Amino acid sequence: MSYGPFDRTYTAAEDRYEKVPYRRTGASGLDLPAFSFGLWQKFGTDYAFATQREIILHAFDLGITHFDNADRYGPPHRAAQHNFGRVLAKDLAPYRDEIVLSTKAGNAIGPSPYLRGGSRKSILNSLEHSLRDLGTDYVDIFYHHSPDLDTPLEETVGALVSAVQQGKALYVGISNYLPDRTHEIAEQLRAAGVPLLIHQARYSIYDRRPEQNGLLDTATQDGFGVIVYSPLAQGLLTDKYLETIPEGARAQNSTFLSPDVIDETYRQRTAELNKIAAARGQSLAQLALQWVLRRPEVTSALIGASSVAQLDHNTAALDFPDFTAEELALIEEHGVHGTGLKL
Ligand SMILES: NC(=O)c1ccc[n+]([C@@H]2O[C@H](COP(=O)([O-])OP(=O)(O)OC[C@H]3O[C@@H](n4cnc5c(N)ncnc54)[C@H](OP(=O)(O)O)[C@@H]3O)[C@@H](O)[C@H]2O)c1
């Protein structure tokens, strides 16, 4: 990355496409970087904008072409999209064609019945607002953030299809849907001529639900890609919490990661995983990312970061040899589903 005079202009690194591999998203024609970047935490008004900008631009310089957002991300809600929009306008506008921009609608962002759920009104209003905040005419991927069992699936499908037909989204995705409803929406979307591109699901060494509930099999069957969120279990799958909770870490300053989960069982299992990583010459964070990406159903690992150093470190995760059967068995032994999870 280089900045022009007075830090006003940005020129992307010329070698940015030589750094991370790109993987095909399900049966579509769209490639995504093996690592995508999410703006869920530390991209609201609570963190320095200069640092946010530095991280976003560094990600792009590393070949991370895919940025994941949602109307909900902040704090306050919508702030992360507004902040990303500032970077897009100031620095990334010349590269808009090289960026896959995602947003989501459907998780509650206020008490109004129109600021949540899967209704046509909620979904399409949210998209309009997101486009304004991001300062763009279209997003590349538009997601329904979570299933809404109180709204007919047909209505949600109709809203997603309209977003594409209106040219406001190129592809559609879903997040947090269980396999049966995923299959159902995939069928309805296919029938409407707007195939389901991608499913965003939580998956890590400590959260095995997509393996256990059959979501990864549904992905193969229905031809969509899987992008996994919280592959580091929000930082629990790093060595940072082995001794103490460091100043400024998410377990100290976020309502989404309680310090209560950092107990003796967590520390024992994580210390064992850390030893397996060390024996491979990599860090636990790198092992955890390489582990989710070993699955062919997984298109991309959606990571967060609070510094450029974390990004550099994490995107080196694929520089190591594939896991042996013995290593995978050891990871199974200590990577117990549910460790560190409250939900
Ligand atoms: N669809 C959904 O419902 C949903 C839900 C959650 C997330 N997401 C998406 O997924 C994205 C990623 O989620 P996530 O942030 O939970 O992912 P994650 O990669 O599991 O956790 C990222 C956090 O771990 C810490 N970290 C990262 N690398 C580290 C390293 N090398 N050493 C030590 N600590 C490190 C950082 O937190 P600190 O430094 O602050 O401790 C960082 O912000 C989100 O931004 C969002 O786009 C989607």
UniProtKB/TrEMBL annotation:
Record's keyword terms, sorted: NADP, Oxidoreductase
Annotated ranges, domain NADP-dependent oxidoreductase: 36-334
Domain of life: Bacteria
GO molecular function, a single term: oxidoreductase activity
Example GO BP: methylglyoxal catabolic process
InterPro entries membership: K_chnl_volt-dep_bsu_KCNAB-rel, NAD(P)_OxRdtase_dom_sf, NADP_OxRdtase_dom
Family from the record: Belongs to the shaker potassium channel beta subunit family.
UniProt protein name: L-glyceraldehyde 3-phosphate reductase
Species whose genome carries this gene: Nocardia alba
